[in-house]
Amino acid sequence: MVRIGWWRQQYRATYGELHAALASQVRISEVHVRYLYQQVYLPLLACHERQHKDHLAQCAKKQGGLIVALAGLAPQGGEPQIGCVRALSSGLPLRSGGLCQHAQPTFEAFLEPLQHLAWPILAVLSDQPTGVVPAVAPVLPHSRHQVRQAHYLRTLAEPLAEADAACKGALRQSVRQQVGAVLGQDARTAPSQAGVLTVTGLLPSPLAEPKGPVSQGPTPRNSPSAQEPEADAVVTQRVRHPRYLLTLQGRPPFRLAGLETSARLQQVARVRLDLLAPR
Questions:
Q1: Which is nearest to 175 in space by CA: 249, 269, 256, 271?
Q2: pTM of the full predicted structure?
């Protein structure tokens, strides 16, 4: 039970992975693993959380009631979605369990035990799944209900995100038209490297034997043999960063890839001009 709970909570192991890890030591089926987690481990976890009831009471007394958040966790493998009601100030879960459907009667039955708490529910914060909004009013009539601000921000940011995505596409196309050949070329490497840079560990790559006579003195920095590797290294480093910038992905409303790509490419251009000025 300890292993099942630990692997599931810490490493997000699937039931198949749990069964594969346990089957080599005990005779157990995947169905039994699923039963142990859902019907034994989760109730034990809930009993453990009840020890924090005093802390929950202190938080409720301090703010005159509880503000709770209702959230749903993504289902796995066609299983019912797991719903969770937790107190925002303390983070303690008040109720959690599987929800077979997103309907008003389901959420009403899930929220109904909150009526029997010793403290009033001041507000409910939730997403906007079907059935939640009409279920909160009859079950908790004296509580305020608010949708999470991230959803409002995402809705407000949709027009800007669309324009930003179009900007990013036009920007990438313009950059590839002008310097696509430069960004696409690979750095020149010695044939012996075969694309491998540095390998260490128990089996490191052998040191290459020096080719030709060993020089008796330092190579002047202005000689062609010294300039070519240094120039390749500079060009390679300067090319990698713009190539990476063209792959930036946005996360509206918190990150707009088009604006970020434009600003960082302008910074790249300024650095390149500063490098070209002295040389």
A1: 269
A2: 0.44
